[in-house]
C-alpha cells in the first residue's frame, strides 16, 4: 500500500502501487475546502465487479473506446487532462454507440443526432437525449483501465 484516500463519508480506501482512481469532481462545501479535503472524494461500491477493460495507452487524449462485457456495452473516455471515465456505451436517445462520437474535453457528441453528454457525470448537455448516462468508477492499475460495474 502506498497511500490512503479519504472519502466524504470518512472511510478510507487503500491505494496500491501503480493504482490511480478517477472520479468526477464533486462540489466541496466551504468547510471541506478550508479543511483541505480531497478534490475528488471516492465512494466505492463493495458489490461492484472490477473488470479489466483495456490498456490505458489504447485511448488517446480526447478519445473513446467501446468495451462490451456480459451482454452490455460501455464507453471508456479519456479527457484532455488525461483522466479516464466510463459510462453506458449507448446514447439514451437512439441506442447509438457513443464511442464513435466526437470527444471534446469532458463531453461526447452522439454521432447520430448530436446529443451531447458530459461523460464525467453522465449528464445530458444538449438534446435530443433527455436521459442521463450511468457512470462507473474507473481506475488505472499497472497501465490497465479497470472499471467497476
Give the overall silhouette. Answer: globular
Q: What is the SS-derived class?
A: mainly beta
Please outline the major beta sheet.
4 strands, antiparallel
Taking the alpha carbons of the first and last residues, their distance comes to: 24 Å
Strand order of the largest sheet: 3-13-14-4
Low-confidence stretches: 1-16, 23-42
Helix content: under 10%
Strand content: 35-45%
Q: Specify the number of helices.
A: 1
The rounded Rg comes to 16 Å
Give the SSE order as H and E letters: EEEHEEEEEEEEEEE
Mean pLDDT: 79
Protein topology:
Layout: E1 3-6, E2 12-15, E3 19-22, H1 30-34, E4 50-55, E5 63-69, E6 72-78, E7 84-88, E8 102-104, E9 107-109, E10 116-118, E11 124-126, E12 135-136, E13 138-141, E14 144-148
What key phrases describe this protein's structure?
about 150 residues; mainly beta; 1 helix; about 40% strand; globular; disordered N terminus
Describe the structure in your own words.
The chain is mainly β. Helices cover 3% and strands 40% of the residues. The strands form 4 sheets. Strands 3-13-14-4 form a 4-stranded antiparallel sheet, with no helix packed on it. The chain has a 4-stranded antiparallel sheet with strand order 5-6-7-12, with no helix packed on it. Strands 8-9-10-11 form a 4-stranded antiparallel sheet, with no helix packed on it. It is globular, with a radius of gyration of 16 Å. Residues 1-16 and 23-42 have low confidence and may be disordered.
Amino acid at each position: 500500500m502506498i497511500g490512503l484516500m479519504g472519502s466524504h463519508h470518512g472511510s478510507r480506501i487503500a491505494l496500491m502501487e501503480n493504482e490511480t482512481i478517477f472520479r468526477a469532481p464533486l462540489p466541496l462545501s466551504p468547510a471541506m475546502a478550508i479543511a483541505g479535503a480531497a478534490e475528488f472524494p471516492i465512494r466505492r461500491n463493495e458489490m461492484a465487479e472490477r473488470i479489466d477493460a483495456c490498456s490505458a495507452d489504447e485511448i488517446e487524449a480526447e478519445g473513446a473506446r467501446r468495451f462490451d462485457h456480459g451482454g452490455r456495452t460501455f464507453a471508456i473516455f479519456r479527457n484532455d487532462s488525461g483522466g479516464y471515465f466510463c459510462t453506458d456505451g449507448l446514447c439514451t436517445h437512439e441506442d447509438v454507440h457513443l464511442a464513435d462520437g466526437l470527444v471534446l474535453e469532458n463531453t461526447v457528441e452522439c454521432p447520430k443526432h448530436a446529443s451531447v453528454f458530459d461523460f464525467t457525470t453522465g449528464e445530458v448537455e444538449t438534446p435530443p437525449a433527455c436521459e442521463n448516462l450511468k457512470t462507473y468508477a474507473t481506475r488505472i492499475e499497472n497501465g490497465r483501465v479497470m472499471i467497476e460495474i
